[in-house]
């Protein structure tokens, strides 16, 4: 039973990843290409300015894969593999949670767990360290940025798990409403404190030295020796669109896992419920079965 | 339950008891799957960036490049 559930979780995730890839290929890739075009043009202008001042020009990054491979194959492989891995983790959480989180039906629980993973592993960390398109992110701060992001994700996941765990304990003494609200406020308080402690990316030492105290690493306009703007900062609309598409992409991924995994889990764990759901029709004298 | 069996056979019921218990076999399975999944997360999102098991190679980084950005991982 456990192995079957994990297999279905991983498969659901792979299929959800495929759908997310279709979305990403059609809607997000044009944005990514525009960001890369901005980056290339800005680098060319920066090199020109550096040369004019007699500064050394840095070597360009590697081009191991063509843009075509990256946008047609690489992102697809990334999303399908990521989806399969997250689907398997959803199934692991599901088999542990079932029977331990009160009177929630197998179908409903299978919808709820991906929603919690989405919030804990992606959306809440995004509020502090949002997704950035190519061109945003300085190479010499990747270690700090990576560590800050992973710490935020880890703390968020652990805090959300503890909120659910202690919420269950509270529910022995408080109403469902009070225990859910208390647990949710507890999680939000932990994350708020973390967000206040961790630095904005622009405040990292290497960035302050090179660019002054900015909030983020989003490229500023380039100026020549006279302070005249010769190249614009990163386009605000492009950044906004990329971030919205990043969120939509994850909603598709986790929503897809939820919608694909829930009926399969129900068939395995609650055959009577699955049968009743299948036979339910909205006709007179027949109440649809609640999920 | 016995006096409502006619109803419960056709309606979905919440499961009141845990599906699994902490025995060695189950824990090993769940731990193994979780580690495997986290390795995938690591290679898609992190490797050849902040830290790298393949040294200075950029193959995985460049291949997963667009996905890494869109999934929200720090990059470059």
What is the gist of this entry?
Chain A has helices spanning 2-52, 67-97, 106-128, 142-170, 176-197, 205-211, 236-269, 271-279, and strands spanning 222-223, 229-231. Chain A is mainly alpha-helical. Chain A has 2 domains: 1-136 and 236-291, no CATH class; 138-217, no CATH class.
Mean pLDDT value of chain B: 81
How do the strands line up in the largest sheet of chain A? 1-2
H-E string of chain B: HHHH
Q: How can the largest sheet of chain B be summarized?
A: none
As a percent range, the share of strand residues of chain B is under 5%
The major pleated sheet of chain A works out as: 2 strands, antiparallel
Question: What's the total count of β strands of chain A?
Answer: 2
The radius of gyration of chain B is 22 Å
Q: What is the CA–CA distance across the termini of chain B?
A: 60 Å
Helix count, DSSP H or I runs of 4 or more residues of chain A: 8
How large, in whole angstroms, is the Cα Rg of chain A?
24 Å
Structural class of chain A: mainly alpha
How does this structure look, described?
Chain A is mostly helical and 291 residues long. Chain A is built from eight helices and two strands. Helices cover 71% and strands 2% of the residues of chain A. In chain A, helix 2 packs across helix 3, helix 3 packs antiparallel against helix 7 and helix 4 (142-170) packs antiparallel against helix 5. Chain B has 76 residues and is mostly helical. Helices cover 49% and strands 0% of the residues of chain B. Residues 1-10 of chain B have low confidence and may be disordered. Chains A and B meet through helix 1, helix 2, helix 3, helix 4 and helix 7 of A and helix 2, helix 3 and helix 4 of B.
